[in-house]
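Q: Could you write out the predicted structure for this multi-component system? I'm mainly interested in how the pieces pack against one another.
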Amino acid sequence: MSKRGVLLAVSMMLMLICWSAAWAADPYVVGFSAALTGPGSGTYAPVKDAFDVYFNEVNSKGGINGHPVKIIFEDNAAQPSKAASDAKKFATQDKVILMMNASLSSTFAPMVQVAEKSNIPILFAAAVCPAEVYPPKPDRNEFCSTAFAAKYDSRFAIKFIKEEAKGPVKLSLVAMNIPVSRGEIDFAAELASKTEGFTVLGKEAIPPPTPDFTPFASKIKDSGANWVYAWAPWETEVKTLEALRKLGWTGKFLAWAHIQAEEDLERLKDDNFYVFGTNAFFADDSAMHKKIKEAALKAKTIYPYQKLTEGWIAAMVLDQILKRTAWPATPEKVRDAMNELKVELAGLRGGPLVWTKENHFRTVNYYRVYKWDSASKRIKNVKDWTAIEVK
Amino acid sequence: MQLVVNVIVLASLYCLICCGYVLVYRASRVLNLAHGEIMTLGGYFLLSITLVTTGNPFVSLGLAVCASLLVGLVVYFALMKFMAGESVFAAVLVTVALGILLRGLITLIWTSQSWHPLENLGLTNTGHKLLGNAVISTFGIAAVLSAIALYVALFVCLKFTRWGLRMRAVGENPLLASQRGIDIHKYYSLSWGLAAFSGGLAGIIMACDSGLEPNMYVIGLMAFPVVLVGGLDSLGGVIPGSLVVALAQVAAISISPQASEVAPFIVLLCMLLIRPWGLFGTKEEWERV
């Protein structure tokens, strides 16, 4: 072989090595638009903490399928215009294979619009599940791993009140004055009165910035309610309860268990305050809880470990999606992986999260109810996992 | 009776918040659009103090209001002083920027989560029975008493003390006051300090009553119709303005909770149609605006 031939062969080999090295180092790029500040950020921002802890560990162990995972976080401050620009950036500049959203429902439409246009799947994590993920005909690009979901939650809640109530139920309903919360409360009111025969006394859609919750609580108390059901952002739920208690109302209060619920159950120590949800509380002290707690304390997360469950679940879901996405990753491959997914969530939820082509929400939803128990001075599991099939 | 109590408590909170808007406007003709954030900061000061000290809760509360007063002074000397002589519009824009900055700082320092400083203070916020089975919370009483004490103190000081007279003089004609040897920056800073003090006090009471979160600043903006209803340059007008707006808001709840959100603005629109300068405002000020 001539000198020139040897040089050419060596150059080719070097090029191949460099190219394959660069290829191996290419990351899975995911764009995450979340309300890290602004309204509702207390619920959404901890997701970033969970993702940072989870994927730092994944990347330190060599990534997924030999590729690191790069999550590009953008703060949309719960503003639709910012969510839209985030989505455009993800699609055109960052070339993401998947978009994620953890923010108010008002940010969904602009992101979905970009996702549809650029044919990139979008995963809602920690944000309320949009109706478009429900079976039997979900939108091809929309998926959801969040615990709370309109229509399904109230079905369980109203049934639980029926079981728990000893006598006739006089029900008042509490929402925040935002479309998704009001819609769910309207649905719950209809369900309660028509299906279960409850006396529905009123629906309070409380405005988001409220200096004093007492006037709203006075109206509920004066109506003679013995049960209150709230499906709203956590601040609205818990502040209404606290205002009711200050007025001397002694009835029972059922609220959706957002990520702040566990801390507030311990703070309020109220035996008649029930919270229901699909995520297990750290009070269970499962192996998975211990793992999250240890990782959060080691990483010195901004938010306390009790608030990381929702984000951790979303991270586990993303981990599983990417494991099933062969390299080179494309939005199409990601969507295919999402259309046939099963994520084991032992210790965090009542069962696995399963997605199919016809169901981008979950095939079975598992609910649990917790409350404070003064006798044992700890949070008690009032009703264990109840499976509701999602068709 | 409960309706009356609810109106009085809400009006007291509005009185505490809106006092700051009027004090700054009267002194410097600037609408402080960062007042909501300064109010929120008061609550966070209390939280921080309670996290580092475990002593007397009243000392913690006192330190927190003093820190709020200090913020007002710092804002004036570090920022607003340099806007003297500039257009009022530019000064208002500076307060908008200040608000954005404070919001960012609050989230960076204290995160987006809710806090309950009352727990750290070792106090409880229970209900107290009044006549006619009405109930008022401990911090509802605190709001009413604080508002009364603040307005009585301001009335006495502005009317009967030398610095009160000078403060009014600076507000009415800064050029003439300056020519008479009054240090206008001293009195401008005092009005900013007092405004932050009253706003901070409102923030502290709300933080103790129902918890603390970064978005509490919106309540400061929601209270703004009260100022326009009472009269932008009238401190005394804040009291009837607060009562009218609070009454409209509480009454609207009995019709529809959603209506309570727009009630202050309906009152404001009516006022703008009938008497645009507010209940006790001056016509000249309205024309200036």
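A: Regarding packing and overall arrangement: Strands of chain B lie at 127-129, 135-137.
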